[in-house]
Design goal:
The chain is of the alpha/beta class. The protein has helices spanning about 1-5, 10-40, 50-55, 65-75, 155-160, 185-195, 210-220, 230-250, 260-265, and strands at about 115-125, 130-135, 140-150, 175, 195-200.
Length: about 270
């Protein structure tokens, strides 16, 4: 056709290239809007992998490569909280209780409340350190109990237990590390009341409680490191808001990119990744 019209082939390819670039730019703008919306909805936490999954869930699914998403995020100046360097928490004091590691790293559980795991971490409030305790259900990684306080004590753990809305008689096992705040008379009596079996990690082995450790890494990155708390009341209020978001809105890679409450209602929809 170029010969018939007496046109250089370079002219044809130039205009074809311009049209293609315009179409791609328009498509990038549309995708960028969705990427920004999803990123902000994740509280600045999602990276390319999770944004890719969310784009595919849209009413008009967008199947975009992670590389392209990364490029658009760079152009938009979107930086995930996970790019910030993390600080390791101080080690808890250890006890020598004869209780064994009954869980034995069986982190995949097929029933709700079969096993709950817990840990504590520190959070800066004003100029002092405060502490947060979380209880996680291994079945769907849901945070089922939480508490915040000025001191790292058994009372803080007890408050987290008291915050659990589920029937504690359904809990079969409670697994933690060997921090003294977990193995004491107050907690032991509470567990005995509901017939809950105790399990403790092997001394000096954080891998025995890796789900709780991983949850707290997420918690520190997405919540504690991103906020400035001026009072315990503010911390408790924002903690409650974060737990609700974590359980009801945030997708989890270990659940096949489902939300914990969604997985709880439809566990057979789980697709390993």
């Amino acid at each position: 056709m170029c010969d018939v019209l007496n046109l250089p082939t370079s002219t044809y390819y130039y205009h074809a290239d311009i049209s293609g670039k315009r179409a791609k730019k328009a498509e990038d703008l549309a995708i960028s809007k969705e990427v920004k919306r999803i990123f902000k909805g994740s509280r600045n936490n999602y990276g390319t992998r999770k944004i890719k999954k969310e784009l595919a869930k849209l009413p008009e699914p967008k199947h975009v490569s992670r590389r392209r998403i990364g490029r658009l995020m760079n152009e938009l100046g979107l930086v995930s909280n996970y790019t910030v360097a993390q600080f390791k928490p101080h080690k808890s004091s250890c006890n020598e209780a004869p209780i064994k590691n009954e869980l034995n790293r069986a982190f995949h559980q097929e029933e709700p409340l079969a096993v709950i795991v817990s840990d504590l971490t520190y959070v800066r409030v004003g100029k002092k350190w405060h502490y947060v305790c979380l209880f996680v259900d291994l079945f769907n990684r849901e945070i089922i109990g939480s508490s915040a306080g000025e001191n790292k004590t058994a009372d803080l753990v007890y408050q987290a237990i008291a915050s659990i809305q589920a029937n504690l008689h359904d809990v079969k096992m409670f697994h933690t590390d060997r921090g003294k705040e977990f193995d004491n008379k107050l907690i032991s009596e509470a567990l005995e009341t509901f017939g809950i079996q105790r399990s403790l990690s092997i001394k000096g082995c954080p891998y025995d409680n890796s789900v709780a450790e991983a949850t707290f890494k997420i918690f520190k990155t997405e919540f504690a490191n991103q906020a400035h708390f001026t009072s315990l009341e503010q911390l408790a209020l924002e903690l409650s808001d974060y737990v609700h978001w974590f359980n009801n809105i945030r997708i989890h890679g270990t659940l096949g990119y489902l939300i914990p409450m969604e997985f709880k209602q439809h566990p057979y929809n789980f697709c390993p990744v």
